[in-house]
Write the structure tokens for this entry.
Amino acid sequence: MFSKKVILYFACVLISFNSVAQNCNLTIEGRVLDEAPNTPLSYVNILIQELATGTTTDTNGNFRFDDVCPGHYHMTFSHIGCEGDRIHLDLISDTILNMKLSHTPTSLSTVLIEGKKSNIILQPNLSVNRQAIEDNANHSLSSMLEIEAGVHLIKNGSGISKPIVQGLYGNRLTILNNGIVQSGQQWGNDHSPEIDPFTADKITVVKGTSAIEYGSGNLGSVILVEPKRISNDPHLHGQINYAFETNGRGHNVNARLSKYTPLFAWKINGTVRKYGDRKSANYFLNNIGTEEVSFAIQLEKSLKDRLFLDFYASTFNTRLGILRGSHIGNITDLERTLISEVPFFTEPDFSYGLEAPKQHVSHQLVKGKAKYFLQEDQILELILAGQINNRKEFDVRRSGRSDVPSLNIAQNTFNAELKYTNEFDGKWKLKIGSQNIMTDNTNNPNTGILPLIPDYFSWKTGQYTTLSKTLFSIDWNIGVRYDYELQNVVTISRGIDKEIVRYKNQFHNISSVLSTKYEISNSQSFSWNIGYATRNPAINELYSNGLHQGVSGIEEGDIDLVPEKALKNTLEYKWIPNTNFSFNSLFYHQHFRKYISLIPQDEIRETIRGFFPVFKYEQTDANLYGIDISTQFTISNSFFGMLKYSYLKGINTEDDIPLVFMPPNSFFGSLVYRTNKQIGLSKIKLDASEIEINNRYVFKQNNLLTEQDFVPPPAAYNLVGIKISTNIISSSYKIRCFIKADNLFNIAYRDYLNRQRYFADDIGISFTIGINYKF
Amino acid sequence: MNWKLLVVAILCPSALFFTGCDKDDPVIPNEEELITTLNYILTPQSGGDVITMSFQDLDGDGGTSPTVVGGTLSANETYDGTLELLNESETPAEDITEEIEEEDEEHQFFFQSSISNLSIAYDDEDDDGNPIGLSSTLSTGAAGEGNITITLIHEPTKDGEGVSSGDITNAEGEIDIEVTFPVSVQ
């Protein structure tokens, strides 16, 4: 028996339902209403792209497609003078779509951008959507990405984490917040990206070969944190998210409001988080709490359908504690800590206290964007943005100096970008762009400690062009980019008499990419990408000098480093034979010339604080290769499953030894049971209730030599989680509730990429309860 | 194309402008917390020359290697030991010993010797009655050669088992100083 479901759209929000059906006799029917007066819209063009069939709505706004096979479809809704909409439909049963289109002559761009190929679509990518962001309200930006195949996290405790994509992180991974290259001290392994994930509607990981448009330095992978355009809804809409996590007694509150007015459209977003000590399976992890306050405002204005103006401003402020017991002195200290079962300074009680060692970081962003349609297929964009990043790190010091930061860096960045796109009536797509970034990095001398990285001023300019075209049923995209970077660096010499030494560096970098996608059939496609990129040594790789307290080592840069070069190939195969099954595999291979990494030296340096190992930035040739596999399947109409596996190997080919700090292989699986029937009374219904069981298995990092680390890599571990969620729907609001348990069996484990693993176990069992209210 | 010209026109002047940007000279931080020198001053109770063992590293972590001066002690002698910590990168040298005295509950020195019959006992205590180690008593036995290691632990667990009698095993905390002197007992 078929149960017909109603899918209700508010602008672009999609909820898809599944029911019994396997044959090609499904119907999609529905009605399109004008959003503001709520009247039927006639003559709306509706196209199912995959079937290339279309229809128009009748005078009552109704439409109907018959004899449709189950499958994934893209439908476009367009109407003269309306904001068009493009939706994705996972068709399993007969479906009713109730669409609302905004009958206001504003945003032409939504259709244009979404409907046409952009460069990155050809490159393998995956994204976290808004619901996943809301359901992970207790997570940071980085940890939201963790379940994706090929994405891992470098952590320091629990609050500090940064993503690692196909083995690339830090200086090699670009993060774009709202289209702007995130500035700050991104080189540090213990520096999280300063972005509130709640400001985003979508977080995309591009696992490509060379993201030409997104600045120099990225050697293939880019993370895009993007808010959606504000819908043209004249009513005030908003949502409130709240999540409480038992482990850490963490509170996460987020609120968002948006409204369209004839003058402009606006959206505001605010988030507050507070966490205290976490608990591992057997003991508290003291002083790893978090306090975070962030706020963002987004304004949009369109003029005469030709000029679109965007303004975005955000402030992000965080205080992150670091496990006191992981803050150690010299190498003897490390050895003492390693044999201790429970980390030093472990307290028997929970506390919200945040003492040194800790980090206080603030990041401000202001962005303005103007997009002008010269013609319908020609766009000119100007983006200007400024960022202010201030990072203070506090160590445990004598005589009350714990309140004085040991590292205090202010970084101001200014971005200016100009982009021209011409689609030549949809036959070609040409993009020409220029990006300019100025960075001014200044240490505050009140630390009383010689700075780890010097003051500098850098100016980067990049010019690029990309061209897309479909030829011989293959989608092609080629791109070239040239970057010039000037660095004016002012260092302070070591030695008894401190001197100021200036360096002026100039770098020229070339990147290029060729992407192709071939659809063998409706269900199978191949994409092959080849990209060449160069990255000049970053300031920390050239000039860092001093004790990295958290790592118990002396790090030294090398001023003679040359740019590293990388050639990356990816081959992606997608197979979606029917709606019950999909398979995706992505092979990648990246060859590096002059790969820069921190290499332990034979020297053990004697200081008054004892002996310290010395690490130096060195260059070598290297290979990075791996595979990310994911598959999704439907067992019955209520059971869905997902499996993901990623394998990665990094080799220093010059010395034929493994690359250090590479993610271990991992496996993720989940099984979901979803109720297809709405339960409840006439006005309030429980909809799409789900139970999910997930399992994450992380292998031991075996690709490492004993002498490459202080201790052998931690053993493999398996974490089981469970999540129950439901949606309470009435005509005027929607409430989503979830409860989940992570590390259900309270396993004591340590992760290879967590810096804290030398000292303490990772987080034990944790329950999170969350509620999301939308109106 | 006109638009390309516009691109060039906007970007080139800015390019010229920014290349001229230089950084000002940074203020060199005053490393007031730095400890450059540790002196262990031993005065024989039966009279005689004062022996000073010293560890000196004037330029901090990097640069030139530290200078370590050990000592020659007399057999079967008892010495009054005093520790002195200095920051000699400043003129006049700053006495860091005072900082330790002010925070004596959060600091403790540990003495480890590889020479048989050489023992070092605490001769001072903080307000809680726990040892600090700025003052100590060193007793030698028969002649021998070896090392003395002096360790300063910040925020130790002073009530840990054996810690107040000088056993570092359960002291936890964080090592601030660790120096080793070659010592000969004659």
